[in-house]
Design goal:
The complex is a heterodimer.
Chain A lengths: L1 E10 L2 E6 L6 E6 L6 H13 L20 E10 L6 E10 L4 E7 L7 E2 L1 H12 L3 H6 L2 E2 L12 H7 L1 H39 L5 H49 L6 H23 L8 H39 L15 H46 L7 H54 L6 H9 L4 H12 L8 H121 L7 E3 L5 E5 L4 E4 L5 H24 L3 E6 L7 H10 L7 E8 L10 E4 L6 E4 L3
Parallel strand pairs in A: 2-15, 3-13, 3-14, 8-12, 12-13
Antiparallel strand pairs in A: 1-2, 1-4, 4-5, 5-6, 6-7, 9-10, 10-11
Chain B lengths: L1 H35 L5 H23 L1
Classes of the chains: A alpha/beta, B mainly alpha.
Chain lengths: 738, 65
């Protein structure tokens, strides 16, 4: 920053102060006696740049207003930037006696201010200049009366050294570590809370699975028992139906008697068989009613026995069938007169044959009788002729024998025909008798056939008796055997009664067994129903417990998620803290590193400056971290503290240190040409030392090229690029470019 | 834009040096720690160093705005 122009109104002693066209490079001397207004120029520059001065505390800044005035105003034009990139700005500040400040910063050539307002302008000046008020007063502004070097740990020096950003980062990281630690503590507290809640939940890993397993097992039992109960009810109902059927179907059987036909017995046997099968399938074969197995088996044996009896009779009836067919054939009317070859002729055919033979015999007899009559008449005539006419009629003698023979022959013929007639009559009679016998046989056969046709419907004993009398010997023998068989129980009263009693007892036993089975089933069903209800309640409880447990698990999972999240957060936070602590450790070491480098640089800069300012009397010095300076005395061959050397030398050393700091600030922050304002730096310098210093100052730095130097008076031969002379009574001062 | 860059150069300069100095220190320190500490965690070291550099850069940006 190079100051180009200064214009001030009512600042301290000056009603008007104006410097135009200040030299950008070289010495600008300000001289005058005490209270002549030299330091006011420095105060004006400081106020223009930063809104405050070194000598006035911020709360008493209104004292900068000239006595008797209510308002002051300062304009300062300056140039910043490196060579070739310079930019010119104007900062303008005003202040009234009420403490109201105004400020604008405008780039020269532009109408609109770049910044407006005290804070904004101050910040913008700092940004453009590369230093703030504190750095300014510790480096480029050596105020009057100030004889100490700035403390090494001051903010300004830290800023010059480039330590301030490190400290700022360290402060940020320290704050972050604190916040992160707080966060971690909070997270750990939250985690402990969540852990407590998890503990309160007391989630058992296998509990939900066991609930599901219980529900599954209970459901399975529920289904099994329900199914079993339904099955038992079904079996019970079927047993009841079977029992009802047994009662219904066996009623007619028990009423059967000696007059019951084979057909009726067969129907009864079917009923009983049906009942036995129903009992068997509905009861006996069911596990639940297995107690009826024995009675059902006995009943089945009974039915089997009955069926066997009827089967035997049925077999006989089958045999009777062929016999009955034979009878039918015997009774069949002939279709022709000739019976089919190989077949027995039917009785009507035989009768017809006899009729035909009788008729033929009658024809033969009739012819015999006719021929007999004819032969008789002829014989009688011949005999008459022979007897009467032969002797009378001559000539017949020769024929008498012939005639006699003929007469005899005719007589014989007559006799023969008569015999034949007689034979025929006998034959006719025989045929008629046989025909009558056939008629009887036909009648008997028809009656027998009719009886056989009713065999199935007639009382069974009668049927058996009928069979014993049929002309078929085999049938008759079988019937007789059947009739006499003691195992046959259907043919006599006693056996039949015994048989019915047996059936009655079997039915009663079956009833008892079925009722017992049903009772047992009812008990089991009742027990099953109780179990089913209990299982249902258990299932309902499980169905309620499972969602509750699931919700608890969801809550636990949620809490676990929170725990994991918190743990992740804690780990992440811990990692962040560790990284930040490591960063702070690096900052601390880096701070020392930079600080040492800064001290080294300062020492190096001072080492170059000090000999020039002290005429090579002092070259070496020690500067510690606090910027405490010790200087090496060649005479004493040791490092001396500042209080061990003269005030002039102290000021020289301090000036050297200040210049080094200024150079360091230029190096680190400004990066461009810079002014420096030294308010009476040579207070304890002798004239020669001042002369030497004034000669050396412009050569000390390539960047600090505009050097303001204040002194009460300068050597006569000193050369300045601008010399501003202040006077006591001077309240208005205007200096333009030469 | 160029003028803005120029305007920012002074302010930028205030923070360039600390960043450079810190990076230089970290490079030296990294080599030193690697040599003396067999358990040296280079990744964490780099992370911490980068964190500081990022913060310094952020401060620099903040001051440039």
């Amino acid at each position: 920053m190079i100051i180009n122009n200064i214009r001030a109104h009512n600042v301290l002693k000056y009603a008007h102060l104006e410097f135009n066209g200040l030299p950008a490079q070289g010495l600008i001397a300000v001289s005058g006696r005490n209270e002549s207004g030299k330091s006011t120029i420095g105060e004006t520059i400081c106020f223009a740049l930063f809104g405050r001065t070194f000598s006035l505390r911020p709360e008493e800044i209104t004292k900068i207003i000239r006595w008797g005035e209510t308002r002051c105003r300062v304009l300062l034009d300056f140039t910043v930037g490196q060579a070739g990139e310079e930019r010119e700005y104007r900062v303008e500040r005003s202040l009234d006696d009420a403490g109201n400040q105004g400020a604008t910063l405008t780039r020269i050539g532009q109408e609109e201010p770049q910044a407006r307002g005290v804070a904004a302008v101050t910040a913008e000046v700092k940004r453009l200049a590369g230093f703030g008020y504190k750095e300014f007063i510790e480096s480029f502004y050596l105020a009057q009366r100030e004889i100490h070097t700035p403390h090494g740990h001051s903010e300004a020096v830290k800023s010059m050294a480039g330590l301030a950003p490190l400290e700022r980062v360290d402060a940020q990281l320290a704050q972050e570590v604190k916040e992160l630690t707080d966060n971690m503590i909070n997270a750990e507290r939250d985690m402990a809370d969540v852990n407590d809640r998890l503990g309160e939940l007391n989630i058992q890993p296998d509990y939900l699975r066991s609930l599901w397993a219980n529900l599954s097992a209970t459901g399975e039992q529920h289904r099994e028992k329900s199914t079993r109960a339904r099955l038992l009810r079904y079996v019970s109902d079927r047993c009841r139906e079977a029992l009802q059927m047994l009662k219904t179907e066996t009623g007619p059987v028990l009423k059967a008697g000696i007059n019951t036909s084979y057909q009726a017995w067969s129907a009864h046997a079917k009923r009983l068989d049906k009942c036995a099968k129903v009992l068997d399938s509905h009861c006996a074969q069911q596990d639940a009613a297995s107690s009826t197995t024995e009675s059902t088996a006995t009943l089945k044996d009974f039915v089997q026995h009955l069926k066997e009896q009827l089967a035997r009779f049925g077999q006989m009836m089958e045999g009777v069938g062929s016999y009955r067919a034979r009878l039918t054939r015997l009774l069949k009317e002939p279709a022709s007169d000739v019976a089919p070859k190989g077949q027995e002729a039917s009785l009507p055919a035989k009768k017809a044959e006899f009729g035909r033979r009788a008729e033929a015999a009658m024809h033969s007899r009739k012819r015999a009788r006719v021929f007999a009559v004819i032969s008789l008449i002829l014989a009688i005539a011949l005999w008459i002729v022979w007897i009467i006419l032969f002797p009378i009629v001559p000539g017949w003698q020769g024929y008498d024998v012939t005639l006699l023979c003929v007469a005899i022959a005719l007589t014989i013929i007559f006799v023969l025909f008569m015999i034949r007639s007689r034979v025929m009559s006998t034959r006719i009679k025989r045929f008629r008798n046989e025909s009558a016998a056939l008629d009887r046989q036909i009648q008997e056969t028809r009656e027998e056939a009719a009886a056989l046709d009713d065999l199935a419907t007639m009382p069974l004993p009668n049927a058996v008796a009928l069979l014993t009398n049929v002309r078929d010997e085999q049938i008759a023998a079988e019937a007789a055997q059947f009739e006499s068989d003691s195992s046959v129980t259907l043919l006599d009263h006693d056996s039949l009664n015994e048989y019915r009693r047996l059936l009655t007892s079997l039915i009663a036993r079956s009833e008892d067994d079925i009722e017992a089975a049903r009772s047992h089933i009812a008990n089991e069903v009742a027990e099953l129903d109780r179990d089913v209800r209990e299982l249902g309640r258990t299932m309902a409880q499980l169905n309620q417990a499972i969602p509750v447990e699931q919700e608890r698990r969801r809550t636990a999972d949620h809490l676990q998620g929170i725990m994991q999240s918190l743990q992740g957060k804690i780990d992440e936070t811990r990692d962040k803290i560790e990284i930040r602590n490591l960063a702070r450790d690096l900052l601390e070491h880096g701070y020392q590193y930079v600080s040492r480098r800064f001290n080294h640089d300062i020492r190096s800069l001072v080492g170059k400056t000090l000999p020039l300012l002290t005429s090579n009397r002092y070259e070496h010095l020690q500067i510690d971290e606090a910027l405490r300076v010790r200087v090496f005395s060649g005479q004493k061959h040791d490092f001396l503290n500042l209080d061990e050397i003269s005030s002039g030398t102290q000021r020289q050393i301090m000036l050297a240190v200040r210049l080094a700091l200024a150079q360091a600030l230029v190096n680190t922050a400004v990066h461009g040409n810079q002014f420096i304002f030294l308010d009476e730096p040579f207070a304890f310098f002798d004239e020669q030392r001042m002369r030497d210093a004034l000669k050396v100052l412009p050569t000390l730095s390539d960047n600090i090229i505009q050097i303001w130097v204040i002194a009460q008076e300068f050597p006569e031969d000193a050369h300045f690029n601008r010399h501003i002379r202040c006077e006591h009574e001077m309240t208005n001062m205007k200096i333009d470019a030469a | 834009m160029a003028s803005m860059t120029n305007e920012n150069s002074a302010a930028s300069a205030q923070f360039e040096e600390p960043i450079k100095n810190f990076i230089a220190f970290c490079e030296t320190e990294r080599a030193h720690r690697r040599n003396v500490d067999p358990n040296f965690d280079a990744e964490r070291f780099d992370k911490a160093a980068q964190l500081v550099v990022d913060r310094l850069a952020a401060i620099k940006r903040e001051n440039l705005e």
